[in-house]
Amino acid sequence: MSITNYTKFVDEYNLLHTNKLPKNQYGGSKDNKFVLIFLGKPGAGKGTQLQYMFDRGYIGISVGEVLRSMAKKDTPEAKKLRNIMNSGKLLPSAFVMDLVAKAIPNNRKTGIIFDGCVRQLEQAKALDKILKKKGIKIDAVIEINTPDKVIIKRIADRYVCSSCGAIYNKGGKDTQVKGICDICKGIEFYQRDDDKPSVVKNRLKIYKEKNKPIVNYYKKKGIYYKASGRDGIAENTDKNVMKILKKLK
């Protein structure tokens, strides 16, 4: 698969999410110095939490969002990508980590969040090597802990802006103005193919199988934290994440 345009997609994604959100929309600290990894089951609330963090000045390296942008292209590579993603299977680690390496800025001026970059133990080890070469260390790995029943309900209500990829939920963080994206003002939305019930169940199964060794890996490094998302309310999850960041200061 070609990765030529990956950096362009990342730049577009970050530009949309960091420059067009109203400042202090979500309140909280403006602290944006940390390098973070977010873990969590599909639908745990990582996408919404990313938007909160972007408002605080972070830049994001979100493999899932960028891959979905790439998959929309009318190319053989995009078709292969769509087939893998729509099945709920994981992409080859070498491919994912090549994307990540290309997206990390050489001279960062703010915090970085990695989302969807570490789904297998080998990816965690590969990311460590990539970051070491760039002189970057991970400050915290935060797993958003959300029950399956909350996730299934949330995903059934989830929809995505066709223009910028912002994620909304009919039963949670909906658009401020009905039918209009808060970020890019787009008016077209869709439900992701990988949010279909059969695919979600497969993704949850894969996550549970692959996540335990990843958690143990970061626990041994002393940088693993868990943020509760048990009630499915995004604002409460964000408060729990911010409590963790305060411990890092």
Task: Walk me through what this model shows.
With 249 residues, the chain is α/β, with parallel strands linked by helices. It has one domain: Rossmann fold (3-Layer(aba) Sandwich). Helix content is 47%, strand content 14%. Strand 5 (158-161) and strand 6 form a beta hairpin. Helix 1 crosses helix 3 (63-71), helix 3 crosses helix 4 (76-87) and helix 5 (93-103) packs parallel to helix 6. The radius of gyration is 17 Å and the shape is globular. The chain starts with 5 loop residues before the first helix and ends with a helix.
Key descriptive features of the protein:
3-stranded antiparallel sheet, 5-stranded parallel sheet, 249 residues, alpha/beta, globular, Rossmann fold
Short characterization:
With 249 residues, the protein is an alpha/beta fold. Helices cover 47% and strands 14% of the residues.
Discrete helix count: 9
CATH superfamily name?
P-loop containing nucleotide triphosphate hydrolases
Rounded Rg: 17 Å
CATH architecture: 3-Layer(aba) Sandwich
Tell me the series of helices and strands, N- to C-terminal: HEHEHHHEHEHEEEHEH
- State the share of residues found in helices, binned by percent: 40-55%
